[in-house]
Design brief:
There is one protein chain. With 274 residues, the protein is of the alpha/beta class. It is built from 9 helices and 12 strands. It has a single domain, classed as Spore Coat Polysaccharide Biosynthesis Protein SpsA, Chain A (Alpha-Beta Complex). Strands 3-2-1-4-10-6-11 form a 7-stranded mixed β-sheet, sandwiched between helices. It has a 5-stranded mixed β-sheet with strand order 5-12-7-8-9. Strand 7 and strand 8 form a beta hairpin. Helix 1 runs parallel beside helix 2. The C terminus is likely disordered. Bound molecules: 2-acetamido-2-deoxy-beta-D-glucopyranose. The site of 2-acetamido-2-deoxy-beta-D-glucopyranose (NAG) has 4 residues, from helix 8. InterPro entries: Glyco_trans_43, Nucleotide-diphossugar_trans. Its EC number is 2.4.1.135. It is found in: Golgi apparatus membrane; Membrane. It catalyses: 3-O-(beta-D-galactosyl-(1->3)-beta-D-galactosyl-(1->4)-beta-D-xylosyl)-L-seryl-[protein] + UDP-alpha-D-glucuronate = 3-O-(beta-D-GlcA-(1->3)-beta-D-Gal-(1->3)-beta-D-Gal-(1->4)-beta-D-Xyl)-L-seryl-[protein] + UDP + H(+).
Length: 274
């Protein structure tokens, strides 16, 4: 059975202990998972060590401080939070995992999200990149690959339209072999936030044709991105059926939702194939 390698960047704030405890308890329900937890700190902290000691999930505890010049970049953040830590985890995998011995799937599991445990079995046999819908992303109700005849043909999303792959960190997983066939691929710094996911996928040289839709051809929403406002949860009751017939309705609801929030609608090139 392929291993799931879950990479989680974490940093100190009041919710940290609660967040990583919740994540630990989710991971406990998943077979054959290794947790790479990377602290944004100069030292590994006792707080995180204590949670890991009690967690009963196989883990590797790492730390990688975000350099001050990145942290304090004025105005726009040069490198969105977590990038340095995820790269440290990728370097660890390339150093310690033998790609000939290990079959595995790499997943970037941030600590402020809520994960439906079923998604781990969906991603476990990822050949190249697997993708699925995620709820409450970027102040939209959900983001999702658009699937037609079992193939990803576009994306439903809100946010930066310049991303080649407008997926949330919680919405994709990659086969570990890709990290070895593309040894330089990592999260790259950019003046724009929210492009990190796209940057790693571009580095890994994947195409739309490589995307394997999961969660019943992306008709099931399996994760909730906790970085979205908690109050939005009340808007997340409806389980959209993303058949082509209903995509339009769902998409318009996303737009209406944004309009109510006074956010400007942005459409992707691919997202209006309805
Ligand atoms: C996804 O769609 C394809 C094409 O319509 C179909 O063959 C396949 O069985 C579907 N997969 C699932 C899991 O529903």
């Amino acid at each position: 059975m392929p291993t799931i390698v879950a990479i989680t960047p974490t940093y100190f704030r009041l919710e940290q202990k609660a967040d990583i405890t919740r994540l630990c308890q989710t991971f406990r329900l998943v077979e054959n998972l290794r947790w790479l937890l990377v602290e944004d700190s100069f030292n590994k902290t006792a707080l995180v060590q204590r949670v890991l000691n009690n967690c009963k999930v196989p883990y590797t505890h790492l730390n990688a401080p975000t350099p001050q010049n990145i942290k304090n970049a004025p105005g726009k953040r040069k490198f969105p939070r977590g990038g340095v830590q995820r790269n440290a985890a990728l370097a660890w995998i390339r150093k310690h995992v033998d790609p000939k011995e290990t079959k595995g799937t790499v997943y970037f599991a941030d600590d402020d999200n809520t994960y439906d445990v079923r998604i781990f079995e969906e991603m476990r046999y990822t050949k190249v990149v697997s993708v699925w819908p995620v709820g409450l992303v970027n102040a939209g109700k959900f983001e999702s690959p658009m699937v037609k005849d079992g193939k990803v043909v576009g994306w439903i999303f809100v946010g930066d339209t310049r991303r080649r792959f407008p997926v949330d960190m919680a919405g994709f997983a990659i086969n570990v072999q890709l990290l070895f066939s593309h040894p330089k691929a990592e999260f790259t710094s950019s003046s724009r936030a929210n492009v990190l996911e796209s940057s790693i996928l571009e580095g890994l040289n994947v195409t739309l044709a490589d995307m394997e839709p999961r969660a019943k051809n992306c008709t099931e929403k399996t994760n909730i991105d906790g970085a979205a406002e908690g109050s939005l949860l009340t808007n997340f009751r409806q389980n959209f059926d993303l058949s082509l017939k209903t995509i339009k309705r769902a998409f318009l609801q996303n737009l209406t939702f944004r309009a109510k929030k006074k956010l400007s609608p942005r459409l992707s090139n691919g997202a209006l194939v309805v």
